[in-house]
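To whoever is on call:

I kicked off a structure prediction for a single chain this morning and the downstream step that reads the tokens threw a length-mismatch warning. I double-checked the sequence; it's 82 residues and nothing unusual in it as far as I can see. Pasting both halves so you can look.
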Amino acid sequence: MTNRLIYWFPAKRYGWGWGLPSVWQGRVVMGIFAVLLLGGALMLLPTYGSLVFAIYAVCLCLGLVAVCWVKGEPPTWRWGAK
């Protein structure tokens, strides 16, 4: 058994932030995010309008960033190959 930390979201090669998930846990998080976003669009937009959906979408995005921050590589500015 190794003590190596496995990141769910690797850092992007260029710029700041995270790339696509590298393990199944990250893919599950992205799938849940997509389902919640689509479900919110189908339920909130017709009933409450675009402002409520926009607030909902921003909250979902902040939640996704929080998961990436905790389970991803530390974000730093990157200029390409190491």
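Update from on-call: the warning came from a stale cache, not from the record. Cleared it. Sanity check on the structure: The longest strand covers residues 14-15.
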